[in-house]
Write a structure and sequence with these properties.
Strand content: 5-15%
Number of strands: 14
Largest sheet: 5 strands, mixed
Strand order of the largest sheet: 12-11-10-13-14
Oligomer: single chain
Structural class: alpha+beta
Number of helices: 19
Radius of gyration: 37 Å
Distance between the termini: 85 Å
């Protein structure tokens, strides 16, 4: 028997009632006293309110009874929603509202959910969880952003049913509301990125490209690449904007310049990488007129040509020589991939010839050469299958002959080196510039070997590809060679190794000296920046000391003389630092070498480099 204090109509009176254990019938009829005791209530120590000698439902702790337009209403204390408050309405609808009220904070211990989570050291722990509508809505916006779902997903009946089953308290928002949430996230992330770029003390490399939508509208994407304070490569898309026609050099340069000024990074740009076309060349010239005063080497290395696009132009030039053979193979692949029934026939013929059909036929995109290589590489394995099916399928009339297959095999072998380079250079989580140089040199040496081919088509193709290669080789090998020089596994040794093979013993020294001079010029320019920064810091310290101690200018009469000596003394710091670095032994080549981690550790030793 338990004694419970209760309150009646008079707050001063106190009664004692006995609780009677509930019978099985009580579970189906109304609320028992025990249920009221353990319920979520505002009364001290779970007291039961009794009005006029009758039990009063605990739900009234969360509602206020009011007269609205002459009718009794129960107004929620959290969201202020009016519900039916007549005695004949009962309280079932009030309980239902309390379960899903978005404004009510869960304080009931029975509503706390224990959820597993992981600590930073990997160990598991249990935490209590309480539902947060705003947090859940933000996560929904992130889901739509990450997976590129349409905004209309929030209006899909299936999604709403799933959300309600997962968390009945979650109120799914409208399409316009989730759009505003996404734009809010964009503004927050843009502010964070702008703060990072403003604090960044180094240079920022830019890449840009034009995209055309299905609606034939042109969009420009601009990406900023930089190495942060922790020596980690960062990439940020800072603009994806619609550019109205015509896409002339003037229009593109204005759009790009507006982006740089908007982000306040026009004084930090090092290079701009673009595709190779005449419009981009003119755009670069217009940008140089506005940015040249802040660029390295007076803007000589500002224009970087996209290596992947250069390779695409070279390969495209070479593929023109065997266009007929490739077209027959492409049509054959398209024919046998057209319907599921033809795919089954093809696989059955492969099994009969004991040819593994694990690698499925791949159809390329004519405008993307790096998809042509997988198509040829796979189709060649099924050469006998195509020939066998020709005997069974009269409608199949595009079978390549033996000469076509021979050319395809030759070309597939040649394309492998280009394909491997493209895969290697497409990394975004690690620096790739120091990987370009050896691959580009290997391609150049391979083209020299292809000139000796006994197959006339391949030989002619090699000459055409070399001609296209030389158009871009001179303007890109300098910066790539500097990146190799800064790789402690290679330094100038790899440059000497390749240039001797490419240019011969007589002319290689000229090219090697050109790269060395470029390294010295860049290092000298960076040293001036380092000295300027140190001078600014020392002057600020001096001014601060003078203000603190009340010194006047006469206390340091030779300060200007010290600056004069510093500016006119011969500077051999760069040459000695560069010389010491190059004279050190090469690091052994290992597979997972982190070049940024090495420079983070050795940056104190070589501050300018």
């Amino acid at each position: 028997m338990t004694t419970i204090s209760t309150r009646g109509e008079s707050e001063q009176s106190e009664h004692h009632v006995e609780t009677i254990p509930s019978s099985p019938m009580d579970d189906d009829h109304g609320e028992t006293a025990e249920e009221n005791i353990t319920g979520d209530c505002d009364n001290a120590e779970g007291e039961i309110a009794i009005v006029s000698g009758k039990k009063r439902s605990i739900v009234w702790n969360h509602f206020e009874k009011k007269k609205i337009k002459g009718e009794d209403k129960a107004v929620c204390k959290y969201c202020h929603k009016p519900l039916g408050g007549k005695s004949t309405n009962g309280t079932k609808h009030l309980h239902a509202h309390m379960k899903r009220c978005p404004r009510r904070k869960q304080q009931d211990i029975r509503q706390s959910i224990i959820t597993p989570s992981k600590k930073s050291d990997g160990r598991s722990q249990l935490n209590t969880y309480s539902f947060d509508q705003s947090f859940a809505r933000k996560e929904l916006a992130y889901m739509i952003i990450i997976h590129e779902y349409p905004l209309s997903i929030v209006e899909h009946a299936g999604f709403r049913r799933y959300s309600n089953a997962l968390q009945p308290l979650f109120k799914v928002v409208s399409r316009s509301r989730i759009k505003r949430d996404i734009l809010k996230i964009y503004d927050e992330e843009k502010t964070k990125t702008m703060e990072v770029l403003q604090k960044h003390q180094g240079k920022i490399a830019l890449t840009t490209d034009m995209w055309t939508s299905k609606q034939k509208k042109g969009y420009m994407v601009i990406t900023a690449h930089f190495i942060d304070e922790s020596w980690i490569l960062q990439s940020r898309i800072i603009r994806f904007m619609y550019v109205p026609c015509p896409h002339t050099a003037e229009v593109l340069s204005v759009a790009l310049m507006e982006c740089l000024l908007d982000w306040n990074i026009d004084g930090k740009v090092s290079t701009l990488t673009v595709d190779n076309c005449s419009t981009n060349d003119l755009m670069i010239q217009l940008l140089l007129e506005k940015l040249s005063s802040n660029l390295l080497s007076g803007g000589d290395i500002f224009h970087m040509r996209c290596c992947a696009h250069i390779l695409a132009l070279i390969v495209k030039k070479g593929l023109e020589g065997i266009k007929g053979a490739i077209e027959l193979i492409r049509n054959s692949v398209a024919y046998w991939k057209a319907t599921p029934k033809r795919v089954e026939k093809f696989e059955e013929a492969a099994r009969q010839l004991n040819i593994s059909s694990i690698n499925k036929l791949v159809l390329d995109c004519e405008t993307r050469w790096n998809s042509t290589y997988p198509m040829l590489n796979t189709a060649i394995k099924y050469q006998k299958v195509f020939a066998r099916l020709k005997q069974r399928e009269p409608q199949y009339d595009c079978l390549p002959d033996d000469e076509d297959w021979l050319l395809a095999k030759e070309m597939c072998d040649k394309l492998k080196i280009f394909y491997t380079f493209t895969e290697k250079s497409s990394g975004v989580k690690y620096p790739t510039t120091n990987l370009f140089f050896p691959s580009f040199c290997d391609i150049r040496l391979s083209l020299n070997e292809w000139k000796k081919s006994k197959v006339g088509v391949i030989k002619e193709m090699a000459y055409e590809m070399i001609e296209k290669f030389e158009e871009y080789w001179f303007v890109i090998n300098g910066v790539m060679a500097v990146a190799i020089m800064l790789d402690p596994r290679f330094k100038m040794k790899l440059i000497e190794f390749y240039f001797t093979q490419i240019y011969g013993q007589a002319f290689s020294k000229i090219e090697i000296d050109r790269v060395r001079d470029l390294c010295v010029d860049l290092a000298t320019e960076y040293e001036l920046k380092v000295k300027f920064a140190e001078t600014s810091v020392s002057q600020n310290d001096l001014s601060f000391t003078s203000e603190m101690h009340g010194f006047n200018d006469d206390v340091y009469p030779l300060e200007k003389f010290d600056m004069f000596v510093s500016n006119t003394a011969p500077t051999s710091t760069v040459k000695s630092e560069l010389t010491n670095y190059l004279e050190e032994d090469l690091l052994p080549r290992i597979g997972n070498f982190d070049i940024l981690a090495w420079w983070k550790t050795n940056g104190i030793k070589y501050p300018v480099l």
